[in-house]
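step: validate -> pass
step: tokenize input -> pass
step: predict -> running
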Amino acid sequence: MAAQKVCEHISSIKELKEPKAYECEECIKTGSTWMHLRTCQTCGATLCCDNSPNKHMTAHYHKAKHPVVISAEPGEKWLWCYPDELFVDYE
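step: predict -> pass
step: emit ->
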């Protein structure tokens, strides 16, 4: 099996930030709903994905420039780097 390509943003992560709660912090404030959740690996914010109506995690990336998120979905173990558009599975 070939090794996955890893960018400098992902390789700089030493310990994963896990979600504090299974909810989108911004959707809770506005009473909105979400599809799936992602957790920012810079600040630990858990926000909704691009399949959700408000796309809060992508908005967070554009505002804060925090490059890497993990899936906050149970059983999913992957990272996404926004600037490098790189998806990486982990164990």
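step: describe -> The mean pLDDT is 95.
step: cleanup -> pass
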